[in-house]
Amino acid sequence: MTTHNIQAKGATLFAKDEGTGPTLVFSHGLGLDHRIWDGVVAQLPDHRCVRYDLRGHGQSDVPDGPYSMGTLISDAEAVCDSLGLKDVVFIGLSAGGLIAQGLAVKRLDMVRGMTLIASAAKHGQPEPWHARAKTVRDGGMPAIIPEMLERWNARDDGAQLENWLTRANTEGFAATCEAIAGTDFYTPTSGLRLPTLGLCGNYDKATPPDLVRETTDLVPGSQFHLIRGAGHIAPVTHADDITARLTQFLTSIGHV
């Protein structure tokens, strides 16, 4: 396992690179970091697994916001280019799934497949995201945590997720909310033609299963599966189920 500090436009990004084999790139969701994938990556010894922290999160730099989704997509591109990654399957949770879609549209030469976990082409209307950004800038992370945990409906490991959010950077969280607010990928995602897997917990309130299925269905030939008993952060609470579905998908597209 090696770690990297990758130069992107206006930020240095932290990445972790481990294993050998066909490459998987993992992108986490709002208020979290690369560690959400620990339980999944541990079960994928025959792949090269690259995880990174979004700008404003984890060990990556925290430039002042707002951020744009285009910038977050360029960050993912910088990670892949810096490490010489090609023909990757890009796996994104929530906001990370938006990045997966945008990177596939921009660099189909780089992305040969994608997995969208608890993600959609558009995550609701802009106003609530701008309101969340204002809430955390005014009151810090404690002002937003109860709402986030309710929306995530974790059921398992709620204390761990609360601890993650408590440690999240306020400006990084708010600026990423603003990036999500301005994103609508229905049209570009509907033009994609690549192997696609959609996964969603049946208890997810933030991105309900019907919304995730709707986005997955935009890509012809895609697959969709429910993760029973899971809320929004299934890679943490249901790592075994996520890995099993992901492994089936990777085998079906020959990425093994």
Automatic annotation (TrEMBL):
AB hydrolase-1 domain location: 24-242
Cellular component aspect of the GO annotation: membrane
InterPro entries xref list: AB_hydrolase_1, AB_hydrolase_fold, AB_hydrolase_sf
EC number in record: 3.1.1.24
A GO term, aspect molecular function: 3-oxoadipate enol-lactonase activity
Enzyme class of the recorded protein, top EC level: hydrolase
Keyword Hydrolase: yes
UniProt keyword list: Hydrolase
Domain of life the protein comes from: Bacteria
Record has Glycoprotein as a keyword: no
Name of the protein: 3-oxoadipate enol-lactonase 2
